[in-house]
Amino acid sequence: MTTKIPQPPGIPLLGNIFDIDPSNTWVSLQKLWEKYGEIFKITVLGQQIVFVGSVALCEELCDEKRFRKFVGGPIIEIRNAVHASLFTAFADEPIWDVHHRILAPQLTPTAVPDHFAEVRDCAAELTAKWRGMSSGSAVSAIGELNRLDLETTTLCFYGRKLNNFTGPEHAMIKAMDGSTGEAMKRPTRPKLMNWLFYQSRFQKDCSAMRQYAAECLEYRKTHPTDRKDLLYTMMNGKDPETGKSLDEQQIIDEIVTMPIGSSTAPCVIATAIYYLLQNPSSITKAREEIDSVIGEGAFTQEHLDNLPYCAGIVRETLRLSAAAPGFNIEPLPETKGPVMIGGGKYQIPAKQTVIVVLHGVNRDPAVFADPEAFKPERMMGDAFESLPEGAKKWFGNGKRVCVGRHYAWMWNMITLVTLLKDVDFEMNDPSYQLRQDGWFNLRPVGFDVKIKPRTR
To answer: Distance between CA atoms of 82 and 141, rounded to whole angstroms?
Structure first.
């Protein structure tokens, strides 16, 4: 006999619509996970959604012989901006395979180190700005790192320097936040309401993102270069199987997609700063490692593999922050009848949407002792290697895993090391406790830090 999947009580017609705060969906799901555990479901406007939050269930749902990525809800909404891109294409759209075969070779572990120097120099530019501020000046951790992320992504992938560290925040950052936020909220409202009251703002943000992409493309056309970067590949690459290439609108789709995907990285590092300030012994250990490996010399790509404690900090922050908060799964379309999961414990329909809530997966007490504690050591060496694969799904899974994960890892490592090497942090508000919100990412809210040059 199967176990009934728990569900909070709802109200007629609307179901559990009031159990989910549309302005902070992921935190609402965290609270439901804390109450119901490894699996629960809700019904919103007649649609049932199942959520899982344990390592074992996550690992089972990542079996691509039984399940695949589900493109629905907010992901369908953001297709208004990026159409059938690597992030948003439906499973049966052949264009995804074409785009992936063209672009993925630029984002492999052997390809991304070509961008090491540009990532390092952008991070150093940010810390130079901070060191030039009056001592003890307070900044928004996520605000500053969002600027760094867009600056670095635009330079590395598209060969364009935005000079976005000072002055007004770039329009692309605001548009990404507005469009992805609206994309999360739209499935919770009647379509007529979306069209009447929210369509204009949503379309304006989508257009602003595409304008950023069009400007990147036009800049390349008017400033020829011998760079063989991602934009070069978008403009000149051909699919080795079909011979197809990307047209101009598809190039714009993918130019927009990359910063949306990379927006999780500043969330990771901003949250890492919080956990490090809560655990100052970890700062000491990390700096001892950095000073021993890098010393007073130049920071080079070869150093990255010799910084295991810093890598442990990044992984432990990925675990606790759930900066990319979840991903959608569905049974394969040929599945017949109900689907059994959890060793036959639970039953779901063959056409059921399932969302993996990484906040819960990453805190599974069956895998992580003292799961709320920040312990980089558990993410190092044999301790990390021995973790189940279901506990390492920070970048998604399988065929549709984040195509930029190797770049994101390098960005996180370079940025963390540069910050710890160059500056000291202090809580602007010593009583601050981590609060998060976000749409396609989870970021710390209201987290300001005081910056000063590092004292050695």
So the answer is: 28
Alpha-carbon 72 to chain mean position: 18
Q: Write a three-state SS string for the chain.
A: CCCCCCCCCCECCCECHHHCCCCCHHHHHHHHHHHHCCEEEEEECCEEEEEECCHHHHHHHCCCCCEEECCCCHHHHHHHHHCCCCCCCCCCCCHHHHHHHHHHHHHCCCCHHHHHHHHHHHHHHHHHHHHCCCCCEEEEHHHHHHHHHHHHHHHHHHCCCCCCCCCCCCHHHHHHHHHHHHHHHHHHCCHHHHHHHHHHHHHHHHHHHHHHHHHHHHHHHHCCCCCCCHHHHHHHCCCCCCCCCCCHHHHHHHHHHHHHHHCHHHHHHHHHHHHHHHCHHHHHHHHHHHHHHCCCCCCCHHHHHHCHHHHHHHHHHHHHHCCCCEEEEEECCCCCCCEEECCCCEEECCCCCEEEEHHHHCCCCCCCCCCCCCCHHHHCHHHHHCCCHHHCCCCCCHHHCCCCHHHHHHHHHHHHHHHHHHEEEEECCCCCCCCEECCCCCEECCCEEEEEECCC
Q: Let me know: does 314 contact 413? Beta carbons within 8 Å.
A: yes
Virtual CA dihedral for 298, 304, 306, 308, nearest 10 degrees?
130
Buried b / exposed e over 370-387, threshold 16 CB at 10 Å, is eeeebbbebbbeeebeeb
Q: Are 169 and 140 in contact (CB under 8 A)?
A: no
Q: Is the pTM of the predicted complex or chain greater than 0.90?
A: yes
The answer, yes or no, to whether residue 387 has pLDDT greater than 90, is yes
Q: Which comes out higher in pLDDT, residue 85 or 1? A: 85
> What six digits make up the tokens of 84?
């059938």
Q: What is the amino acid identity at position 178?
A: G
Taking only the tens place, the pLDDT of each residue in 263-292 is 999 999 999 999 999 999 999 999 999 999
Buried b / exposed e along 257-267 (16+ C-beta atoms within 10 A): bbbbbbbbbbb
Q: Which one, of 157, 177, 321, lies nearest residue 228 by Cα?
A: 157
Q: What is the spatial distance between Cα 441 and Cα 177, in angstroms, rounded to a whole number?
A: 10
What pLDDT is attached to residue 178? 97
Q: For residue 216, give Cα distances in angstroms to 156, 174, 255, 440.
A: 12, 17, 8, 23
Task: Give the integer Cα–Cα distance in Å for 163 and 151.
Answer: 7
